[in-house]
Write a structure and sequence with these properties.
Four copies of one chain form a homotetramer. Helices cover 44% and strands 14% of the residues of chain A. The first copy, chain A, has a domain of 140 residues: 2-Layer Sandwich (Alpha-Beta Plaits). Chain A has ten helices and six strands. By secondary structure, chain A is an alpha+beta fold.
Amino acid sequence: MANSKYEYVKDYETPDKLPLDNWIVVRIDGRGFHKFTTKYGFEKPNDKKGMDLMNAAAMAVMTELPDIVISYGISDEYSFVLHESCTLFERRASKLVSTVVSTFTAYYVHLWSQHFPELPLTLPLPTFDGRAVPYPSIKRMRDYLSWRQVDCHINNLYNTTFWALIQLGGLDAKAAEKELAGTLSADKNEILFSRFKINYNNEAEIWKKGSVVFRDYELVEPGASVDETPKMPVNLAEVEISKTQAEKEKKRRAKARITLQHLDIIKDDFWERRPWVLSNKPGQIPKQT
Amino acid sequence: MANSKYEYVKDYETPDKLPLDNWIVVRIDGRGFHKFTTKYGFEKPNDKKGMDLMNAAAMAVMTELPDIVISYGISDEYSFVLHESCTLFERRASKLVSTVVSTFTAYYVHLWSQHFPELPLTLPLPTFDGRAVPYPSIKRMRDYLSWRQVDCHINNLYNTTFWALIQLGGLDAKAAEKELAGTLSADKNEILFSRFKINYNNEAEIWKKGSVVFRDYELVEPGASVDETPKMPVNLAEVEISKTQAEKEKKRRAKARITLQHLDIIKDDFWERRPWVLSNKPGQIPKQT
Amino acid sequence: MANSKYEYVKDYETPDKLPLDNWIVVRIDGRGFHKFTTKYGFEKPNDKKGMDLMNAAAMAVMTELPDIVISYGISDEYSFVLHESCTLFERRASKLVSTVVSTFTAYYVHLWSQHFPELPLTLPLPTFDGRAVPYPSIKRMRDYLSWRQVDCHINNLYNTTFWALIQLGGLDAKAAEKELAGTLSADKNEILFSRFKINYNNEAEIWKKGSVVFRDYELVEPGASVDETPKMPVNLAEVEISKTQAEKEKKRRAKARITLQHLDIIKDDFWERRPWVLSNKPGQIPKQT
Amino acid sequence: MANSKYEYVKDYETPDKLPLDNWIVVRIDGRGFHKFTTKYGFEKPNDKKGMDLMNAAAMAVMTELPDIVISYGISDEYSFVLHESCTLFERRASKLVSTVVSTFTAYYVHLWSQHFPELPLTLPLPTFDGRAVPYPSIKRMRDYLSWRQVDCHINNLYNTTFWALIQLGGLDAKAAEKELAGTLSADKNEILFSRFKINYNNEAEIWKKGSVVFRDYELVEPGASVDETPKMPVNLAEVEISKTQAEKEKKRRAKARITLQHLDIIKDDFWERRPWVLSNKPGQIPKQT
């Protein structure tokens, strides 16, 4: 309605549309979470309640933004993958990033008291920043997620050993760091087992694999569906679908339960059994038993 | 620490540094606030508790991000102005926007129960999106703020009259809209006064002027300080200051009270009496009386 | 060597790297060529000497910039396709565009006198502008070229009929335009044949198909080579090759003759028989007979 | 006219509008000019015919693109400054850069034979690349030009001494380089004078100052015009002028002679006496005598 001689300042906005056909990863990171987790006495190396809160916030983000096909979280970071055909906010980077960050933050703050009832939030509050990265093919996008999951493994093995040396071995941080300098994975596994009787393989999957969030449909038997559903479709955005069809799919997608699991997303198996993640076409709702 | 064959995916991040020497305006907007304010029964045309919450969140953002020199809010939007010499996050747009949006959202959600103790937040939660716009001169940046303040005036006069027609005049929304179609400011003032004995000039400044947030130092007498402090310095980033000096200024800035006022920021007077807003050099802390 | 207090101005350069993995199309267009071709009396609808000069300039560009895998020209425009794995100038848009445009212009001006010995160039000189567009998959890049070739067909059929009406039918431009308004391809073919005994199919390929420039190796029998060379590799940049191998390929590529042909590049056949265009791996040099 | 199912590929073009209110510097650089100047036996340290050709090409560029207010050239590079209010090609970087580069190249190649009649151009031809850099204030833009002119001075003093040591002193390149390592300006002046009786101050201005190209109007007496024409206007784009006025100015600008001079553009004097360079408002055409 309003119209004034000052309106010309709108012309200074610069376009920030992310390139078409690209998978868009919006990654958020906790700001100053080292200090934040110390303030609230988070357990080391991993705090279950803290991660549960991260996961709850991520699931809320996926519920509110159906264009996100999969999310992956470790520590104080979460990556949200938007489908290559996504047209949300005309793919404008600032709108996408700010909406994801705002929604995640809102739920993190709001749900805090459910996860930490005994620890009221005080100022300064927890906040997150974010960025969007475009990946021009399924391979690149999967390599991005593989990068985060390998990071999860390497960091968690290190942290598990580091804190075992301190909590069980009685070392201080400096000594533990020195002990681990230059060690390989095998060395850390050996330290854990020989000194502390810890078999790293028995550690909880949530720490070894990180947290994967996606919509839950009936798994597809690898090989079985090859004819109908291309495992690695060259260009999914291509397939033209009628408005009615799109409407139906939206409803089925909305009905799908969002699930949190801790499993390998580097190998093909995860993706072959859940073709809907890459196709963004809803699968079969699992029968209730 | 982690290093893997997948790390190359970092190369797909694209730079989004905002241009040097530019004032940066980060504006946030409530997402779906029409529905949101209806759900919580916000008063029409303006809800004082709702605006107080917006202002409280904005003041928290300014406290946490000292690079912001002034903020301006109306309705469900808030604009934060970062100084042209700001180097926060290397001026990366996504970091700046996401941090402002996340901080604002965190405080909005966290402080909600203080402003609406009788109305617990339910899902979906309130969220905000944001964008950053660079303005290459003080004039352009001030014109941006003038644009928002003129918008504030035009919208508020319309809304005040519209809701008077409904709440006091017994019209329904459609009839009120029809009544106002094509009217000028003078017409609306006349409707308010002749039919409802409302003198628009007596309406609260918070609705007529919007909310201006800035650091509070001793006002400078217009004209008095002209020799020392250029009213409209050509290039403030230019002035080289020593590290020690910068450290001192940072401390003085941190000590400054952040103030919320409702006044005209279109005319020169506001800016001339508060040279620190444009110079980002802390002024004199007001004497307590 | 030089170093001064002014050197900071370099920081105002903004990065313009084109996204990784994308095919890059640099298209150049003649500036004001309508006026230019009139000035030198180019034949209508098509001038063979003018197109020969365009093609000669394009072949020179391809010789100097081996990262270009294929080029396509019609009228006063030429599109140069850089391979998705291209790292020339770190993929900086302005360097790529300006180098292609400068090289094309240099040859166009330099070779003019060979193609138009009787018509010395006078001021203002012919110039070209350019732009770079990234395409994230082979399909998109081929669709770009198909777009240009369909344009070529549609424009040439129209122009051929338009100028037949004028040159053979005695109409003026306005009447010819009116005659063609709303006609379909079949109508234009019919006009050409029934009124002027022109069978459009017999027109020269250079006008019907445009000009395709690429490196010349032995054609591959469709189907035959499928096992070794993926027809449509998902990600060619992926394949790691040793430095020695790269050096060898560079030499073979340099030896390859650059060929100009006028054929269909919309259908798969062109691409399947010349796998080196998409793979950027040199094929077999044709045996001389 | 043409319209096909492939036309969607146009959506992959990305906007590259340069920011409003910014001065735009398009700098072009000779590609591989070290090799090129060796091939044609350019004189060392400076070749007058070569620089004359550069200057002739630059003057042609300024004639064809009246939005350029000043140009500055040294060696194989030339910088063209577009006025901050320039709207040419909607300020699209690729169009601006490619047009300047193409025009410069066309004239360089075309005028070659006039400057080097005895040396016909052979392949590969001379080419240039280019880039555009936005500067958000007069100060930044002038600092850019100062940077280039300081570079000119430093390089020319070095080169003059280096080649004196070789051509007059009988040293080889390696020995000359070693001799100059770590020397200051005063040292080089001393070497030139004591060993070769060369007073650097007496060297030609074209090499000491570089080449400045601008439109020629009557000089303004410094101080005299201060009241009417702001020396350093805050925002020139601001001033609204009528269409008729703009038309008149365009004609006067077209009539203005483009002049090539070799003078200091670092100090204020140049700019104060030629206010039209910054204002882009045509001045008084000098009276012919």
